[in-house]
C-alpha cells in the first residue's frame, strides 16, 4: 500500500528586505500593515510566518528590535502560527544586527542562509521610472557589487547561540546545490540534528536558476545527503516562477513558501494585493492535487519545534 503523503506546510514570507516600496503599492511597510498581512495569511492557511521588519517612515529594511516589538507580539496575540524571524536581514546588515532580535525573542524558528553568495536584483532598477523614496534606487543598484555574507564561522555561531542556547530550529535557506553540502558539513560535525527544514530557493540572480530540472537536482541531492526520512523539503520560487515551481515541489512531496517577500504578483501582470491572496491561491492548487494543508500544530510536530509556550513575547 502506498504511503499517505505528508501534509503540506505553507510558509508565508510577509515583506522581506529585497523589494522596495516603488515596486508595489501593496508591499507591507508599516507595523500595522505587516501585522495585518501576517494574520490574514495565517487565517488563509499559512502555518509558518517568516518575518522581516521595515522602517515605517520610508519602508527601508531594519533590524531594530524596537520595530520588531511593534510587530511580533501583536501577531502572536492573533494567531498560533509559527513565527519565524529572519537571521538574513539584508546585505547591508552586520551579523550582530541580524541576530539582535532573534536573540532577544528566542523564537521557535529562524531562517538561516547556508552560505555567502552574490544576491542581487539590480537589473530591476532599469524597469522603474519613478521612485517613492531616495534610498530605493541606490539600494537596488549597488546590489551588483555586494555579497551576502554567511561564512562557515558565521553559520556555526548562529547554530550555537540560537540553536544550542535558545532551542530555536531553522529554515535552512539553500540557494544552490553547494548550500546542501554546507548543511551536510554541519550535520557531519554534529552541530545540527534532524529533522531539517530545507528551503530550496530558485530564481535569485546569484543562485540556482528557476529551471524545473534544478528542483529535481536539489531534491535528489538532499535525498542522498540526508535520507528523505531526515528532512522536510520546501520550495521557494522567486518572482514569476513562484506558483509553477511550488506546484511541482508539492507534487514531489515538498512544502511551499509564498509571500510578498518572494513575489509581488498573484498572476501574470496582476500584483498581489496582500499575502493572503497568494496563500489562498496555493491552497487551492494543493486542494486540486488532493494534498492536505498542515496546521501550525502539524508543522510544529513535523519540524520538532519547541512550541510557542517556550517563547516569551
Automatic annotation (TrEMBL):
Keywords: Metal-binding, Transferase, Zinc. The keyword Translocase does not apply. It holds the Pfam family BKACE. The keyword Phosphoprotein does not apply. InterPro entries: Aldolase_TIM, BKACE. Transmembrane segments: none annotated. Its cofactor is Zn(2+). This is 3-keto-5-aminohexanoate cleavage protein.
Amino acid at each position: 500500500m502506498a504511503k499517505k503523503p505528508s501534509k503540506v506546510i505553507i510558509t508565508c514570507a510577509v515583506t522581506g528586505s529585497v523589494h522596495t516600496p516603488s515596486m508595489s503599492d501593496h508591499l507591507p511597510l508599516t507595523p500595522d500593515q505587516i501585522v495585518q498581512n501576517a494574520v490574514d495569511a495565517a487565517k488563509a492557511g499559512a502555518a509558518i510566518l517568516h518575518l522581516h521588519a521595515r522602517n515605517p517612515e520610508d519602508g527601508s529594511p531594519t533590524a531594530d528590535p524596537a520595530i520588531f516589538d511593534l510587530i511580533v507580539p501583536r501577531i502572536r496575540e492573533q494567531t498560533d502560527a509559527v513565527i519565524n524571524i529572519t537571521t538574513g536581514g539584508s546585505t547591508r546588515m552586520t551579523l550582530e544586527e541580524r541576530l539582535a532580535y532573534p536573540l532577544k525573542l528566542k523564537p521557535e524558528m529562524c531562517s538561516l542562509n547556508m552560505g555567502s553568495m552574490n544576491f542581487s536584483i539590480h537589473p530591476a532598477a532599469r524597469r522603474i521610472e519613478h521612485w517613492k523614496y531616495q534610498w530605493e534606487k541606490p539600494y537596488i543598484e549597488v546590489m551588483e557589487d555586494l555579497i551576502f555574507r554567511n561564512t562557515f564561522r558565521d553559520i556555526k555561531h548562529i547554530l550555537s547561540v540560537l540553536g544550542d542556547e535558545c532551542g530555536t530550529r531553522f529554515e535552512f535557506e539553500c540557494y544552490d546545490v553547494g548550500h546542501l553540502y554546507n548543511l551536510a558539513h554541519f550535520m557531519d560535525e554534529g552541530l545540527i540534528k534532524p529533522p531539517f527544514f530545507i528551503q530550496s530557493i530558485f530564481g535569485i540572480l546569484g543562485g540556482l536558476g528557476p529551471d524545473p530540472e534544478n528542483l529535481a537536482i536539489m531534491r535528489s541531492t538532499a535525498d542522498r545527503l540526508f535520507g528523505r526520512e531526515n528532512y522536510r523539503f520546501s520550495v521557494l520560487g522567486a518572482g514569476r516562477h513562484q506558483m509553477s515551481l511550488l506546484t511541482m515541489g508539492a507534487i514531489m512531496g515538498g512544502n511551499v513558501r509564498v509571500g510578498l517577500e518572494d513575489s509581488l504578483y498573484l498572476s501574470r501582470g496582476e500584483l498581489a494585493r496582500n499575502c493572503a491572496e497568494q496563500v489562498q491561491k496555493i491552497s487551492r492548487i494543493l486542494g486540486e492535487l488532493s494534498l492536505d494543508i498542515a496546521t501550525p500544530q502539524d508543522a510544529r510536530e513535523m519540524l520538532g519545534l519547541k512550541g510557542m509556550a517556550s517563547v516569551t513575547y
